[in-house]
């Protein structure tokens, strides 16, 4: 056992972090929120160039995957930089198309997904999940209902999320892409991957929130001393770190479980999802409180991160659903 | 010990309720933190004022009804229960007016208060500065003596509602030679459209320009707009911070109404066997009731001639945490619709849960962070050593 | 409205506090735990002399009551001093006997209850409440089952509670004291009073825990400074005070509601019960943590208080039951 | 990155499981914190030791199996899953032995370790003093130089298990002239039945004499029982505090087993639709798994030649809070039986939930309070200023 990212995984994360850090992601996020996907798609292309999307696509469709562990590592960095767009959904759609084993449908789209040319939104339509993320910005929108997968005809009107970079739509109409008993199982596997990668985003988001807040309280002074020298501030940040540090191994174990097709993978993903999601929410609350009024303004780039935490916590598995799943008897 | 209202109080409640029934807009006004909403809320203040409901606790000569603190609480309960609009004059009414009552001249009161009561002049507060948030004694903006008045210079931040307001009030360093940082400050009122004032709106978390930054460059303020003695601004500002204000900054009526809306949401939309959500709804109901009762006890103490000093810190910590928990419960009850921004077409209850949630998140920060409130509780109520923290 | 204890109520509380403070209650508690009820019953007699038990008994049976507000004030002081014995149960039994309107049964016992000569245990027997508190020490044990009240024949074997002063027994056999449609309603009213007075005990207990912990951290030094000068310690104590301060008005309002027979009284009692019970548990955890190892020893008298918090939280209405009651539609 | 065990590790697990299946007492032993239970647990140590299961990670010459850290974790998982008794030798094995391995002489190791492994000598720790709890540098007990050894005087408190143990180890002030309070201390071992030692048992919350106070009056200790250099005791004690110990003070196996018992309790006794309880059970299961995985990651880091320094503070805060939450959930699941003391005849699971709860409450206090752990996390892992707190 060596339950740590290996050198290649670490280097991959570091190079993604460096690449994304050199981009102006806040501007891309703000543009995306305003309906201008240009900068976001440019970022998307760079992420694809780095090989991230290919990790979700099998080799036979010009990909490198599926590699859930490397995807989790990569999506942690995407979360750290709050990259906008249906990245999780595109990776999950790749898993769905792969699992459907409908060669033409997969062959038609997966090479373009791997290359970063196609963004896909995906939505398991139900009362609990009526919206498809960024459907208006996607090149294709897949809708799963029961044993059917549809390719939606249009995105429908967009609803704004509390996270301005999340654009929520109710996809309409379209044609049936696949139907039959295998669809639900394939969709469930895709949803597990989506849940895992959302958890990874939460973890990265939470780490970024913590790091920036630590940096802020070290330099901000009140009452003649750095705010970070107050014990109440220190302890709050310490608790935030504890929450994040114990979410990470759950995430990695869940990724390994998905990679191995372990029977407990569904439970492991649920455990990682709720823990990382709650840890990021805690980090967001900490960031908001310790930045004080400045953290409460949309001008501060960090507010883009703060507002992401809660929607990510609920996307692809609410805390209640995840906790129920952890105790569910089956696999 | 009793919780009984007098016949007069009950009549006051009935009158308020009837008026609100007849006047509260059927469709919620647009968000207070937008230009359109600000105008609509200003108009609403005029409507309130026309029937003397805008400042019930003030003297009649200034537009009020001489209502007691308890009557004010009754009015607030009815006001929020009726789903009436937010109060755009809140900063003036709850921060500036009490200061004027205590330290203002009769001339100042007569000049400033009636237009405030009518919503004709909306006031913004100008306390914080970039380097003086929690640490208000670190203020740097200056008031320089000039012929017949003062010249204000410097920068103020987090000035709530200043994006659309008419005038502002705040503290300025007038006597830089003072021996301690919280001395040598002067409390002044100034127009936001004066020469030398630049107002830069700042969006809050949901993007609404709920604040502004103010840049002041030798803005002239006549002596008549100084409140209290020059150089005594800290004392003037603090003297009204601790008493009724600690009880009334956020009225119990607000949380009672929110808890009632939450309960209705739970009853209509939730799985009643989901005890995890049920417990959180119950806690919100209990918390709102506790806050109401705590306030009644505080009002009784004030009626006895007592004071609410550091106890207002208990209140601040309690309601700010209650408000967040209540709104987070609502968002969880709303499932996928809890994520929607308030202006989203499909946002439940016209987006008021989303706006309420955003607003609640600021609670532990403004009016003295909860960290500072806990220091005050520990030091002044429990007698723990001050220490360097 | 004057929602504050009046002078008489305040004086009553102060004199009870002074009287109990002059007794060696820790010894009485330890003796009670060991099965020696002598010192506890002596304390009981003083409490009755102060008029506390007469508050639960109507005038026609030589009492002064029923006066729920004064009872709540008094039981707050009993909780502050962690007085052992079935005091809540005796007061509730008085309410039950009064409500049954069975003059002989009431006339036989209530004057002795008011005079402090009869201790009564009371148990609404159900799977959730199988034990009668201190049944072995009581002069009478009432058991409510459905529409029947029994006078138990014996206490049965005693089970030790985590609070050593609580002796739990399963009363056995006995004779029927009352039966019929009025019993359940009378028992419900008695249970509401028991719940209110348990909440009062929790509040007093929590206040005592907080006060002693504040005193301890002011004098205890570590790292050259009083422990109470650390911000983490100060904030924890501040939060404990907040919890207690907001429980008190709920308690007083619930007592007023019971006194007035208000339709909302049941909900108010439930709200007070869960809030005071949780506040006392928080105070106990705070006391334990801030006393450190010394708080974890039974030698410290405060441990008698610490161990009371959790059983009181659950007695006569668990937090879950109280929260459900708060939202119940009926009265 | 993987979570795979080698064939040898799996074989080790199978061997441990088989042995435990055959040897773990069917009826739980009496509480470790009673005289009777202590004797029974000492006997159990002998049983473990006879087949070399008492100290698997030690060298074979001292009674171990040269097991790796990972094998130790495997053993612990199997041990607690089998419901095996608590470890009465825990203090010696986890606190004294690592110190001897690093700083003890070969002679000391040979003399002290084998009887420890066999449960023949049970060790108590003697760190704290009345005025030196969290602030260990404030120690006052003295070691005075004498012919061929040292004379120990003073008072030690909270000496876990000293009521029944044979020997103890701790720090004593040997060089009062040292310039800083944590210098001038010496690490010594001494017998609890020596002349001049008075042991006064102290009951913990549930009344069990889990600690003792030690009064020392010129207790002679020969030079051979000094560990490391005289005057260097602080360094000696601290050098082993941060590495593996931070990972292994409470093994993941303990919490995994407790979470499994909790889940079983929930499945058999609880209303599955009670989501409030369900969520807490799920959190315990998730927490135990997270703690296991965090430990695997730490073990991997150590295997890579890395160190676990301040990260052990993360671990301490996490498991101590997990342990309390887990046990409080169990007590709530047990309804009215959750109140029963462990020796009550009707106490569920032979009172082990009650005893576990009592034990868990001490978690945030011992081995460095959680307040201090959070200071360490903030200062050493997050780089926040030290400050006066």
- The counted number of beta strands of chain A is 9
What is the succession of H and E elements of chain B?
HHHHHEEEEEEEEHHHHHHH
Number of helical stretches of at least 4 residues of chain B: 12
| Major β-sheet strand ordering of chain A | 1-3-4-7
Shape of chain B: globular
Quaternary structure annotation:
heterotetramer
User: How is the main sheet of chain B built?
Assistant: 4 strands, mixed
User: What is the H/E string of chain A?
Assistant: HHHHHHEEEEEEEHEEHHHHH
- How much β-strand is present in the residues of chain A? 5-15%
Give the distance, in angstroms, between the N- and C-terminal Cα atoms of chain A: 23 Å
Largest interface, counted by CB within 8 Å of the partner chain's CB: A-D, 46 and 51 residues
What class, by secondary structure content of chain A?
alpha+beta
Question: What would you note in describing this structure?
Answer:
The complex is a heterotetramer, with two copies of chain A (331 residues) and two copies of chain B (389 residues). Helices cover 58% and strands 10% of the residues of chain A. Chain A has helices spanning 7-21, 25-33, 38-49, 68-80, 87-100, 103-114, 181-219, 231-260, 265-291, 302-306, 309-314, 319-327, and strands at residues 120-124, 132-133, 140-145, 148-151, 158-160, 167-169, 175-179, 221-222, 225-226. In chain A, the strands form three sheets. A four-stranded mixed sheet of chain A has the order 1-3-4-7, with helices on one face. A three-stranded antiparallel sheet of chain A has the order 2-6-5, with no helix packed on it. Chain A has a two-stranded antiparallel sheet with strand order 8-9. In chain A, strand 8 and strand 9 (225-226) form a beta hairpin. The two termini of chain A are 23 Å apart. The model of chain A has no long low-confidence stretch (mean pLDDT 95). Chain B is α+β, with helices and mostly antiparallel strands and 389 residues long. Chain B has helices spanning 7-23, 35-50, 69-81, 90-103, 106-117, 233-239, 244-248, 252-269, 275-303, 311-333, 352-361, 370-381; strands spanning 123-126, 142-146, 149-160, 167-173, 185-191, 197-202, 211-222, 226-227. In chain B, strands 1-4-5-8 form a four-stranded mixed sheet. In chain B, strands 2-3-7-6 form a four-stranded antiparallel sheet, with no helix packed on it. In chain B, a hairpin with an 8-residue loop joins strand 6 (197-202) and strand 7. The radius of gyration of chain B is 21 Å and the shape is globular. The B-D interface holds B 273-279, 387-389 and D 273-279, 387-389.
């Amino acid at each position: 056992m060596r339950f740590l990212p290996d050198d290649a995984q670490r280097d991959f994360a570091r190079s993604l972090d460096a690449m994304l850090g050199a981009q102006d992601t806040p501007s891309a996020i703000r543009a995306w929120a305003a309906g201008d996907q240009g900068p976001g798609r440019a970022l998307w292309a760079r992420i694809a160039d780095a090989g991230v999307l290919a990790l979700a696509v099998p080799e036979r469709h010009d990909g490198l995957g599926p590699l859930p562990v490397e995807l989790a590592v990569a999506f942690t960095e995407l979360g750290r930089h709050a990259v906008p767009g249906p990245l999780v959904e595109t990776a999950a759609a790749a898993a769905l198309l792969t699992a459907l084993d409908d060669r033409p449908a997969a062959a038609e789209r997966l090479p373009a997904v791997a290359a970063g040319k196609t963004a896909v939104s995906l939505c398991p339509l139900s009362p609990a999940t009526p919206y498809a993320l960024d459907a208006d910005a996607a090149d294709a929108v897949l809708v799963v209902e029961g044993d059917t997968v549809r390719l939606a005809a249009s995105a429908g009107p967009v609803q704004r999320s509390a996270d301005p970079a999340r654009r929520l739509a109710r996809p309409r109409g379209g044609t049936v892409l696949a139907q039959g008993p295998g669809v639900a199982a394939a969709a469930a596997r895709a949803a597990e991957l989506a849940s895992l990668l959302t958890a990874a985003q939460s973890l990265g988001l939470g780490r970024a929130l913590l790091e920036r807040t630590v940096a802020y309280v070290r330099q901000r002074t009140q009452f003649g001393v750095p705010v970070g020298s107050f014990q109440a501030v220190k302890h709050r940040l310490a608790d935030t770190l504890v929450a994040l540090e114990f979410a990470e191994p759950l995430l990695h174990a869940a990724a390994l479980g998905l990679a191995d097709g372990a029977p407990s993978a569904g439970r492991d993903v649920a455990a990682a999802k709720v823990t990382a999601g709650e840890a990021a929410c805690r980090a967001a609350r900490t960031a908001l409180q310790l930045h004080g009024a400045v953290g409460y303004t949309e001008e501060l780039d960090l507010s883009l991160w703060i507002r992401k935490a809660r929607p990510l916590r609920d996307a692809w598995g609410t805390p209640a659903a995840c906790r129920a799943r952890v105790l569910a008897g089956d696999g | 010990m009793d919780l009984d209202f007098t016949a007069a109080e009950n009549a006051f409640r009935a009158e308020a309720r009837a008026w609100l029934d007849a006047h509260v807009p059927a469709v919620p006004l647009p968000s207070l933190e937008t230009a359109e909403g600000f105008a609509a809320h200003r108009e609403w203040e005029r409507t309130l004022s026309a029937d003397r409901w805008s400042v019930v606790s003030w003297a009649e000569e200034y537009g009020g009804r001489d209502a007691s603190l308890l009557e004010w609480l009754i009015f607030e309960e009815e006001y929020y229960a009726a789903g009436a609009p937010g109060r755009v004059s809140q900063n003036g009414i709850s921060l500036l007016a009490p200061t004027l009552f205590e330290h203002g001249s009769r001339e100042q009161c007569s000049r400033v208060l009636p237009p405030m009561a009518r919503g004709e002049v909306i006031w913004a507060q100008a306390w914080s500065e970039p380097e003086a948030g929690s640490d208000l004694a670190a203020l740097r903006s200056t008031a320089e003596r000039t012929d017949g008045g003062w010249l204000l210079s410097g920068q103020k931040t987090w000035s709530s509602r200043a994006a659309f307001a008419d005038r502002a009030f705040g503290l300025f360093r007038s006597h830089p030679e003072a021996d301690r940082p919280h001395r040598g400050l002067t409390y002044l009122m100034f127009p936001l459209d004066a020469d030398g004032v630049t107002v830069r709106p700042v969006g809050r978390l949901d993007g609404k320009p709920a604040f502004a930054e103010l840049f002041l460059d030798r803005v002239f303020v006549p002596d008549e707009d100084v409140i209290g003695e020059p150089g005594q601004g800290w004392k003037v500002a603090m003297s009204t911070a601790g008493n009724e204000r600690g009880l009334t900054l956020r009225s119990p009526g607000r949380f009672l109404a929110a808890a009632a809306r939450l309960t209705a949401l739970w009853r209509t939309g939730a799985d009643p066997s989901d005890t995890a959500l049920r417990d959180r709804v119950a806690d919100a109901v209990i918390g709102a009731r506790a806050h109401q009762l705590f306030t009644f006890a505080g009002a009784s103490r004030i009626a006895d001639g007592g004071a609410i000093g550091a106890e207002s810190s208990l209140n601040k910590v309690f309601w700010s945490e209650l408000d967040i928990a209540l709104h987070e419960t609502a968002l969880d009850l709303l499932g996928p619709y809890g994520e929607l921004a308030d202006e989203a077409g499909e946002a439940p209850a016209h987006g008021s849960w989303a706006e309420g949630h955003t607003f609640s998140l600021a609670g532990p920060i403004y009016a003295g962070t909860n960290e500072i409130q806990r220091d005050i509780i520990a030091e002044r109520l429990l007698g723990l050593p001050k220490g360097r923290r």
